[in-house]
Amino acid sequence: MKNHRNSERFDDFARVICGDLCIVNGVLTDISEKGFKAEFNAPCNIDNEKEYEIQLRLSRVNAEPLELLSRPMWSNFVDGKTSIGFSILHSKDSARLEQYIKMLKDDKKSEDEIGVASFDSESLFI
């Protein structure tokens, strides 16, 4: 499925915060310049016509959460978990997201070349 996308997706981990969508925080599983997938351990109140302000607390960098305006494109509820694919709309943190994706691309390139990924050792995400 990832091979048919317009932009490269990266496996990543972040806390997904959106009180309008779900009472519990979710977990980001992959991200690209144009979208991301999140999983929640609870049912979510999803309106596919609505735009959601979502915060992503990234695990790889010590920074304020990314604030992204996103729209759900698809969702699944299986075994008590909700998976949602989001499209990212132009957001106040679009430039920061672009920098983060560049870092992921660089890390993947380094990983492919020498087998090592970089992480911010002072990350606040736990």
How would you describe the overall organization of this protein?
The structure is a single chain. The protein is α+β, with helices and mostly antiparallel strands and 126 residues long. The protein has one helix at 94-114, and strands at residues 10-17, 26-31, 35-40, 52-58, 66-78, 81-88. It has a six-stranded antiparallel barrel with strand order 1-2-3-6-5-4. Strand 4 and strand 5 form a beta hairpin. The radius of gyration is 14 Å and the shape is globular. The protein starts with 9 loop residues before the first strand and ends in a 12-residue tail after the last helix. The mean pLDDT is 86.
Task: Please give a handful of descriptors for the protein shown.
126 residues; alpha+beta; six-stranded antiparallel beta barrel
Task: Give the terminus-to-terminus CA distance.
Answer: 30 Å
**Series of H and E elements:** EEEEEEH
Number of helices: 1
Gross morphology is globular
Low-confidence stretches: none
Estimated structural class: alpha+beta
Main β-sheet description: 6 strands, antiparallel, barrel
Task: Tell me the strand order in the biggest sheet.
Answer: 1-2-3-6-5-4
Give the C-alpha Rg.
14 Å
- As a percent range, the share of helical residues equals 10-25%
Short note summarizing the structure:
By secondary structure, the chain is of the alpha+beta class. It contains 1 helix and 6 strands.
Blueprint (SSEs and pairs):
Layout: E1 10-17, E2 26-31, E3 35-40, E4 52-58, E5 66-78, E6 81-88, H1 94-114
Antiparallel strand pairs: 1-2, 1-4, 2-3, 3-6, 4-5, 5-6
